Amino acid sequence: VQLQASGGGLVQAGGSLTLSCAHSGSIYSIRSMAWFRQAPGKQREFVADITRGGNTNYADSVKGRFTISRDFAKNTVYLLMNSLKPEDTAVYYCKSPSVWGQGTLVTVSS
């Protein structure tokens, strides 16, 4: 099983990005998928997750700005990030219950 994250890049504060996490197999039976992030010099932290049934949870720091979703047909999980702030700068990782993706860098300039 592999997770391939993509979509990171450089964006100005207030801008938007959408991250994608492609699963090498089917995500239909996976109980939840999540996004984490790790800023320079900081510990990896939870950002958002989505259950098989579609329930979502968000870190307080991104609530109202980020949206997690998934497409069963494409076996892909997305993270739509709006109103980005410099403090959102980090490497973003997707995660299934047993596998971490390789990470994609998001840099938000002020």
Question: Describe it for me?
Answer:
The chain has strands spanning 3-6, 9-12, 17-23, 32-38, 45-51, 56-58, 66-71, 76-81, 90-95, 104-109. The mean pLDDT is 96. The chain has 110 residues and is mainly β. The radius of gyration is 13 Å and the shape is globular. The protein is built from no helices and ten strands. A six-stranded mixed β-sheet has the order 2-10-9-4-5-6, with no helix packed on it. A four-stranded antiparallel β-sheet has the order 1-3-8-7, with no helix packed on it.
List keywords for this structure.
mainly beta; 110 residues; 10 strands; 4-stranded antiparallel β-sheet; 51% strand
Tally of helical segments: 0
Tell me the overall shape: globular
Distance between the termini: 37 Å
Q: What is the mean pLDDT? A: 96
Specify the structural class: mainly beta
Brief summary of the model shown:
With 110 residues, this protein is mainly beta.
